[in-house]
Design brief:
Blueprint lengths: L5 H14 L10 E2 L2 E6 L4 E5 L1 H10 L9
């Protein structure tokens, strides 16, 4: 979850944890095969699918194909 007020975020997380069986695993680094990088100082969020795409192409035998 993201937002400008940490107290609101923590409150919502607490409500979700009471309603559903879940745990807070900290900051995300990978989700659905995508690499996620957060720079809080620079206020940027980068989602990179390069590794995911490369492995998907390798699985289907297209790793050495030329892009067009």
């Amino acid at each position: 979850m993201i937002g400008g007020n940490i107290n609101v975020i923590e409150g919502i997380k607490a409500q979700l944890m009471n309603r559903f069986k879940m745990t807070d695993m900290g900051d995300v680094s990978r989700v659905l095969g995508l690499q996620v990088t957060c720079n809080r100082v620079g206020k940027t969020l980068k989602i990179d699918q390069k590794d995911y795409t490369k492995s998907a192409l390798e699985r289907v035998g297209f790793a050495n194909c030329k892009p067009t």
